Amino acid sequence: MYDHLENWCNFAYVPFALRLYDSNHVMRYHYDNTKVEQSDGYNRLRVLGAWKKSSDMQGMSGFLCYYDTGNRKSKSGLGGWKKNRPIIGYYRGDLPSRFEKLSDGEYIPLPPIPGWLELEIFAGVHQFDYNRKVKNIYDRTRWVLYKNPTLSVVDIHGKDLKLEDVETKAWINRQANEELSISTIIGTRIDPTPFGRGYIMNVSDGKARIRFCRAGTKDFLERLLIGTIYSNHSKRANTLSGTIGTIPEFCILYDKSDVYNKYVILSEVEHPAIDQSEVKMVQMFPDDYIGIEYDENI
C-alpha cells in the first residue's frame, strides 16, 4: 500500500481557507494561492500567492502542499505525520537551495490591514504522480488524519522572530545608587510594526494609538509613566508615621493642619479590635514632566 502512495502522490495538496476579519468581525480579505497549484513552476510564488479583497468567501482559497524536496519522481510528501512545504506547482526540475533551507510550512505575506485570522482546513487531498496523472488513493487508504495547524510570524528567511523589548530610559535622580525599572505589557512605538505586541488599538479604525494625554501632556505611554515616577522620586518627600483610625478604603490622605500636601499610605498594620491602624505615609506630588532627562545611552 505504501508503495502506491509513494508512486501516486508525488504532488499532494490539502485545500484550506485563510480569512481576515476586521475589529467589527467583517471579512475584508482572504489569502489565495490556487494559481500556484495550477502552475508548472515554483518561481511565481510571490506573484500568484496574495491577499485578495472579499466580503464573503465560504469555500477554499488555497492549498497546503506536500512533496519530497529531493525526489518528486518516486517519493511522496505524505505518509506518517508530515508537515506541508512551501507550495509549488507541477515542477519536476531541481528546486533552488533556498527550498532546502526553508523550514516546513506555507510562507504567507502579512495581510495589508490588522485584524483577526480564521483558518479552515477542508477534507480531502488533491494529488497526482510524477507524470501528472491523477490516481485514486482513497480505496487504498485506511486513515487520513490532520493535526491542529499553527500560525506564526517569521522573518524573510523563515526563521522565528526574536523581538527585543523596547526600552525608554530617563534620569529620575542622578544621586540615586540603584536603578528603578518597570516592565509593562502594553506599550507604544514611534513606528508601529504588524508583528508588534502590546498595542492599544482603536476599534473604530483598527489602527494603533501611539500618543496619549495625562495632566495636559501628550506623549507615549512609557514617557507618561516615567513622568509620574519622576514627579514623586526626583525630590525629597515628607513621610509621616503614627496611629490613625482604620480607613475602610485606599484613598489620598492629608494633615488637617496642612491640607495642601497630600499623602498616600506605604504600609499599614490594622488593629480591628480597637479600630485603629499603624501607618506610614509619604507625600505625593502632581505629575510634572518638566526637567526629565531622557537618555538612550544610560
Structural overview:
The chain is an alpha+beta fold. The protein has five helices and 14 strands. The strands form four sheets. Strands 1, 2, 3, 4, 5 and 6 form a six-stranded antiparallel β-sheet that branches. Strands 10-13-12-11 form a four-stranded antiparallel β-sheet, with no helix packed on it. A two-stranded antiparallel ribbon has the order 7-14. A hairpin with a 2-residue loop joins strand 11 and strand 12. The protein starts with a helix and ends with a strand.
Oligomer: single chain
Mean pLDDT: 83
Query: Which percent range describes the beta-strand content?
Result: 25-35%
Helix content: 10-25%
Rounded to an integer in angstroms, the radius of gyration calculated over CA atoms is 31 Å
Order of helices and strands: HEEHHEEHEEEEEHEEEEE
Per the principal axes of the C-alpha atoms, what is the gross shape? Answer: elongated
pLDDT < 50 stretches:
none
For the secondary structure, the number of strands is: 14
Number of helices, where a helix is a run of at least 4 consecutive DSSP H or I residues: 5
Main sheet: strands, sense, barrel: 6 strands, antiparallel
* N/C terminus separation: 67 Å
Q: Which structural category fits the helices and strands?
A: alpha+beta
